[in-house]
Amino acid sequence: MPDTAERITDDGNTEDVPVDELSEGDLVLVRPGASVPADGVVEKGDSDVEESMITGESKPVSKEPGDEVIGGTINGDGSLRVRVGATGEETTLAGIMRLVEEAQQSKSKTQVLADRAAGWLFYVALGTAVVTALAWTVAVSFDATVIERVVTVLVIACPHALGLAIPLVVAINTSLAARNGMLVRDRIAMEDARNLDAIIFDKTGTLTEGEHGVVDMATGDGVDEDDALALAAAVESDSEHMIARAIREAADERGLSASDASDFEAIKGKGVRASVGGNEVYVGGPNLLTQLDSEIPDNFQQFADEAGEDAQTVVYLIRDGELIAAFAMADVIREESFRVVDALKDLGIEVAMLTGDSQDVAEAVADELGIDTVFAEVLPEDKDKKVQELQDQGKLVGMVGDGVNDAPALTRADIGIAIGSGTDVAVQSADVILVQNNPMDVVRLVKLSKASYRKMQENIVWAAGYNVFALPLAAGILAPVGILLSPAVGALLMSLSTVIVAINAQLLRRVDLSIPDLSGVSSSDIAQAAD
Q1: CB contact burial 156-190 (16+ within 10 A = b; e otherwise)
Q2: Which residue numbers are catalytic?
Q3: Where do the segments described as Disordered lie (predicted)?
Q4: What CATH fold (topology level) applies to the domain 4-87?
């Protein structure tokens, strides 16, 4: 966060003020390259803002009037005037800091066990010291040797290692999670993630992009796919319909340039019409073909039937009365989703999908991803009942959703995982928030949970085992064979146990959170190490 901000006064001038003096409603100037001083809304100016500190996405995000900006993010080459909407503890960054702090301070089940063991060690050490004092007094009478034995017992029994065994792992675990886009709100959830039997994913916006895209196309004889797509994009250039956007994006992905269109006309409920290169071109659905009295050739009919079986929408391209191409539209599945399902199955976790879409659409997506359990046509208020169905089978269930309409299910699940940038509802209903909007972080969550629990167990075994071995030596059980530990050696052993526990905890930073690649699916997601 910057220390100062340029506040715009009523007369249009600017004044430098400390950031903590900003109030909601203030108008601030954010110069190129400067940090945004507080959460707010752009009132004037256009620029790209680097938001990787919040979202993990390195690509700058375009901002224009009406867009929200987050305090601490870095402005690009443009100048922005931002109306402050939140300051201090109300900002997004402060909320993330609170979540991380709460996660580090909250105690897991293993932490409670370690604290209990440290308490038991106090009584064990005290009892051992008393027994040692009595035994040595009887053996050699009360002298400096007795005091030396008792001091050695008490020094060795100091519960430093047990006290540090879990907090060190927790701190590193939380750092690793945060750097990989996981904000842990509940430590118990992080620890329990290793035992998940089933994970339910919301479909739209989680496993899919939440936007329609061109997933397949067919063309007539002698018609090139790129030419047909470019022509459709030209006709749709002035339309803001989601299908129009999908066609334009598909053309952009192929690097196609659309010709200029004129005489654009939107035909309500049927499609659009425009003139392109002297040709009259239509783009629309089956209703448009009915209006134009156009017959569907056999190859296009077969294409439409197959698309219908996969619950896809078909849009047709007609040029001068001739049907020359058809596009299959569907909610595009994220590339990462294929890898997520495969990786979770490798971990022995059942994957289920939950959606309000029709059964046909749900099954088409599930079949493509290899998901066996599907809950379709589910209303938001009934989603938690589907979670309970799996719980009633004795399974520990995780729910992954967007944190808004999935809030009841997130709350009902044993572990609620909100995917997205962390809305208020997500923060309140989820145990873990995946800031980067990346479903692959669910796999990383499970892997990190398993690795962290293993380190906790190793540290407790070492810290407790050390005392089981060292206390009898300190008491002098091997004195008959001439082996006695001095208080100095006891202090050294005690310190050594603490160092070993600390080093073992640090090894958690080396845990492999990467996800295996699948053939044909690209991967740009690299796990981040802890600081």
Answers
A1: bbbbbbbbbbbbbbbebbbbbbbebbbbbbbbebb
A2: 202
A3: 1-65
A4: 2.70.150
